[in-house]
């Protein structure tokens, strides 16, 4: 079946994404009683995420398209939108620079050990969640998680573990290491997208209920509140009516850093691949260090932090972080368009495995957060630093406050580092438990 959407021109796609964002922000700031009540329960960020998903679901736009088989798997790609690529490679690093430029690095470190604890809990939740999900599913439907040789489902689930602990580079490494049948790989990608995006939507919904969740967790938010207050107070003290020159300097700084980040990422990645055998070997646990995206995000974040020690920090008063937030929302919309709600019905067995797996990850996060009284912010960002990595962790962090985006990136970098190791451990545990059918 041909899955070509109505609109394939990225100029039109971008226009539709901006239309949804404009609608969300217009209605969310409206004095209309209906919209006031609506956004009391549904966060604007969730709407910015779900409306593009609806456009994809109704076939208006699509992240990629081509010919699908009877199982709903894309067997031939005939076209692909570049909206997410542009947003993640250009706007995300620019947003990180602009949101980091006013950061108080000492205050970030003062957030304490709970942020790392929740990140580690998220990783452990993925590692133990995989084999538990396989075991529970095997009790009811062994053929769903069975198979032998290259068709063994546990091999495919290993790629899911790579994606959920680290990111795309770790996922690709798992595909190489465990040699899963690539003909079946599309099914795993669907599980990854569907389950991860369902959890993303729930997380965003939870941000609107943050105070209630934190009250239930008995969380201590003092360090987070202090950081937000410092950044807000500083922004207020230097606030001014921005001029055209201010906007041009802000964008000039942001995209100069983006360009340098891409240059540095390309050079470092190519150097490591050419000179370090462990990085060039796709089966190596070090292969994720060959990812250009990893280095691009790392360089942009480091440069943003360095700029926060210069006079450029004062451009926060002209709205640097607000412009960064614009880029973040465009990224949110482009992530949302990757979610086709009809795919939830495809391959229901594997979707159930993914949902059980995610439920264990989430349950463990809430358990530990309750025990150590960690704020919902640490829970949400710790989870997304694993599931979603550097592309979505800063999005979730910035939803709490723009000054917190850096925390999401720093934790996501840990995800890249431990992703391959954690995924290999998960895969071996699943291999032991999985039935051979």
UniProtKB/TrEMBL annotation:
Pfam families per record: DUF819
Keyword RNA-binding: no
Record's keyword terms, sorted: Membrane, Transmembrane, Transmembrane helix
Transmembrane segments: 12-29, 41-62, 82-103, 115-136, 185-208, 244-265, 285-307, 319-337, 349-369, 376-397, 403-424
Protein name, entry field: DUF819 family protein
């Amino acid at each position: 079946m041909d899955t070509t959407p109505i609109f394939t021109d990225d100029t039109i796609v971008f226009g539709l994404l901006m239309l949804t964002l404009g609608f969300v922000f217009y209605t969310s700031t409206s004095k209309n009683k209906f919209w006031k009540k609506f956004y009391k329960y549904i966060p604007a960020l969730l709407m910015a995420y779900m409306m593009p998903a609806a456009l994809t679901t109704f076939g208006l736009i699509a992240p990629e398209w081509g010919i699908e088989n009877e199982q709903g798997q894309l067997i031939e790609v005939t076209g692909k939108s570049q909206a997410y690529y542009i947003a993640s490679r250009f706007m995300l690093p620019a947003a990180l620079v602009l949101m980091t430029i006013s950061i108080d690095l000492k205050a970030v470190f003062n957030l304490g050990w709970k942020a790392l604890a929740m990140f580690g809990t998220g990783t452990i939740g993925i590692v133990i969640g995989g084999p538990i999900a396989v075991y529970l599913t095997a009790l009811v439907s062994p053929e769903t998680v069975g198979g032998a040789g290259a068709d063994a489902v546990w091999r495919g689930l290993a790629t899911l573990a790579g994606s959920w602990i680290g990111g795309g580079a770790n996922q690709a490494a798992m595909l190489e290491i465990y040699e899963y049948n690539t003909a079946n790989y599309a099914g795993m990608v669907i599980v990854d997208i569907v389950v991860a995006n369902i959890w993303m939507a729930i997380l965003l919904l939870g941000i609107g209920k943050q105070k209630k969740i934190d009250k239930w967790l008995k969380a201590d938010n003092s360090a987070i509140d202090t950081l937000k207050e410092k950044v807000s107070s500083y922004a207020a003290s230097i606030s001014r009516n921005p001029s055209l020159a201010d906007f041009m300097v802000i964008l000039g700084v942001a995209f100069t850093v983006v360009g340098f980040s891409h240059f540095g990422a390309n050079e470092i990645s190519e150097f490591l691949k050419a000179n370090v055998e462990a990085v060039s070997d796709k089966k190596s646990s070090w292969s994720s260090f060959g990812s250009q995206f990893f280095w691009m995000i790392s360089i942009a974040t480091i440069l943003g932090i360095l700029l926060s020690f210069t006079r450029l920090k004062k451009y926060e008063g002209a709205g640097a972080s607000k412009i960064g937030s614009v880029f973040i929302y465009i990224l949110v919309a482009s992530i949302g368009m990757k979610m086709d709600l009809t795919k939830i019905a495809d391959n229901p067995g594997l979707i159930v495995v993914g949902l059980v797996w995610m439920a264990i990850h989430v349950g463990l996060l809430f358990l530990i957060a309750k025990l150590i009284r960690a704020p919902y912010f640490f829970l949400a960002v710790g989870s997304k630093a694993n599931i979603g990595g550097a592309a979505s962790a800063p999005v979730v962090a910035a939803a709490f406050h723009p000054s917190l985006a850096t925390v999401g990136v720093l934790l996501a970098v840990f995800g890249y580092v431990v992703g391959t190791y954690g995924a290999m451990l998960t895969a071996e545990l699943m291999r032991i438990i999985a039935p051979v059918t």
